[in-house]
């Protein structure tokens, strides 16, 4: 490989890492935005409106870029439906119903298992070898994320505040996101991140809206009662936190793989805490800083290129 090609490849990877970092910051911001929706708006209605806005944004992007129509095989439509079913519909059902049983901190602690579960699934499905350094990086990410969460709410470790059913339902979020991350890669390569995200989000949105209308959580009065702050929060969640962030996340999966992209999820609680400090005037503790540093170190080692093996100097016989 020429020096120019190597530099271009390094620049492309740097851009991917930058986008994935931005995704984690954006998703950290969704916790702050969600605070404004926690009162007065049913959780299922929030999820439906969020992804309805995301769907409209994605369709608009496809129309503006003149990529609205794409030829899909029956198999691809089937795969996109199941990505939407697990990554959008099931994930949100598990998340919102799980939060009715356990605290947000406990839920965050379980969701922090995402990088490890993605890596484990990728190993069994694709036989993607991790190695000692990457494994150590993933472990550091999990410990760091857990440290940030526990330092914010130590009661998360108290057994009496837990519910085995709630834990199981939130673990459904992890399983759903693993499926959405790992099984998307062939589709992302075939039709690209934009179309994969757009069609999976559309399928998931339809399922969410049908469920919300059936349960009565989504109706005209809920929409009419939305305040300006709540509408802006929904716009952030739908347009930035779903449409843009999901495209960048899938682009990362396409370029560097599910395992290396998945470790950036460990940054979510870190960015949520930092944004809480900046926007909501929450307190930052030394333990939170330590946890954040562990996450950054873990991401670095998980994405660090493997050194080529030295085979020694060739000698003629």
UniProtKB/TrEMBL annotation:
It is a multi-pass membrane protein. The keyword Transmembrane helix applies. GO terms for cellular component: membrane. The chain crosses the membrane at residues 16-38, 44-65, 77-99, 105-125, 132-151, 163-183, 195-214, 234-250, 262-280, 286-303. Keywords: Membrane, Transmembrane, Transmembrane helix. It is found in: Membrane. SUPFAM superfamilies: Multidrug resistance efflux transporter EmrE. The keyword Transport does not apply. Residues 18-148, 165-300 form the EamA domain. PANTHER family: EAMA DOMAIN-CONTAINING PROTEIN, INNER MEMBRANE TRANSPORTER. Belongs to the EamA transporter family. This is Drug/metabolite transporter (DMT)-like permease.
